[in-house]
UniProtKB/TrEMBL annotation:
Residues 41-57, 314-334 have a biased composition (Basic and acidic residues). Keywords: Signal. The keyword Ion transport does not apply. The keyword Signal applies. Residues 40-61, 305-334 are annotated as: Disordered. Transmembrane segments: none annotated. It comes from Agromyces indicus. This is Heavy-metal-associated domain-containing protein. Residues 1-35 form the signal peptide.
Length: 334
């Protein structure tokens, strides 16, 4: 998918070489960052970098890498979502995808070993689920489902329509009744432990540039080297932009059996953050037949001038994040 675009972005990002050391991104991004994503109060001149297409605006750059903001895209529409209405209610999550003619879409291309990937996450980033519904002969996708907490959830359907050749990510919301206790992600989290499995991430996210993120998996302090293939890789990474939960372009480096990718303790992904700001990462790994989702949080620094709507904070360099912005992410430096 988007091979040309991806290569182009990779070339743009190649100017700044990936460094293993985690660099704390010092930008202060307010919780309501939507304004900051489209404008910038800095009085620096926007400086176009040689070699970057001048017409390649932030909007164009973002369009390649931001998905999952619309219920309808490229003629495909997510319709008829049904879900349990309250926490603890055992029910079914079901929906359909229609094509441009309004007919149910029944032909899909397998991607990452499935015809459709479904992500369900509460809007504060909590209660992430990555599941795989099954389709019936009328084109309705469904799976048994129960919410474990109240709140508003975003549902993402990620799929490749047969003959379309590109991934489509559609989204809708579902409200689950009851008392809602928000769990906002107010700081970066470069390490987390779930089910006794600890994951630590190294690498940085930079607006408009592809970067490698390396995740190290340990259990009881010991490196895990027995990760099992899951969805065609040794891990699956979902990255969402805090604020609008835009769905990022992420792809694993290598696959089981390629002679390069190893079954841990390190697994790598290439990720492109469309804009500066905080991102919610969810790494799925499979161990002993069980899939575990580990949530992490990273802040992307402002990158090249053709990202973030041309809102470069300093046109003279891409790699220096220590430019005097207050740093409220002290824990990010590990
Ligand atoms: Cu999936």
């Amino acid at each position: 998918m988007h091979t040309a675009a991806r290569l182009g972005l990779f070339a743009a990002g190649a100017a700044a070489v990936f460094t293993a050391a985690f660099v704390a991104a010092p930008l202060v991004i307010p919780a309501d960052a939507s304004a900051a994503w489209t404008s910038n109060e800095d009085d620096h001149m926007t400086t176009a970098e040689p070699g970057h297409g001048d017409e390649h605006t932030g909007a164009a750059a973002s369009a390649d890498d931001v998905r999952g903001l619309a219920v309808s895209h490229a003629g495909y529409t997510l319709t008829g979502l049904r879900a349990p209405a309250s926490p603890g209610e055992q029910g079914e999550l079901a929906f359909g995808i229609t094509d441009a003619a309004g007919a149910p879409l029944t032909d899909y291309e397998t991607s990452h070993e499935r015809d459709l990937h479904l992500i369900v996450v509460r809007t504060d980033g909590a209660h992430f689920r990555h599941v795989h519904p099954v389709i019936d002969d009328r084109g309705e996708w469904s799976l048994p489902f129960a919410f474990d907490a109240a709140g508003t959830y975003r549902v993402f359907a990620d799929f490749v329509p047969a003959g379309h050749g590109e991934t489509v990510t559609l989204t809708t919301t579902v409200d689950v009744a009851g008392g809602f206790a928000p769990e906002p992600r107010t700081s970066d989290a470069t390490a987390a432990t779930v089910d006794g499995i600890t994951v630590e991430v190294e690498g940085e996210l930079v607006a408009g540039a592809e970067r490698e993120l390396v995740f190290t998996v340990t259990r009881d302090g010991e490196p895990v080297t027995t990760l099992e293939p899951y969805l065609g890789a040794y891990g699956h990474l979902v990255a969402l932009r805090q604020g609008d939960l835009a769905y990022l372009h992420v792809h694993p480096m290598g696959e089981p059996g390629d002679g390069v990718a190893e079954a841990g303790p390190e697994i790598s992904f290439m990720a492109t953050a469309p804009t500066a700001g905080r991102y919610l990462l969810y790494l799925d790994v499979q161990l002993d037949g069980v899939v575990h989702s580990i949530p992490l949080v990273l802040t992307a620094g402002a990158g090249s001038t053709d990202a973030a709507g041309g809102a470069a904070h300093d046109g003279t360099h891409d790699d220096d994040h220590d430019d005097g912005h207050d740093d409220d992410h002290g824990e990010a430096g590990r």
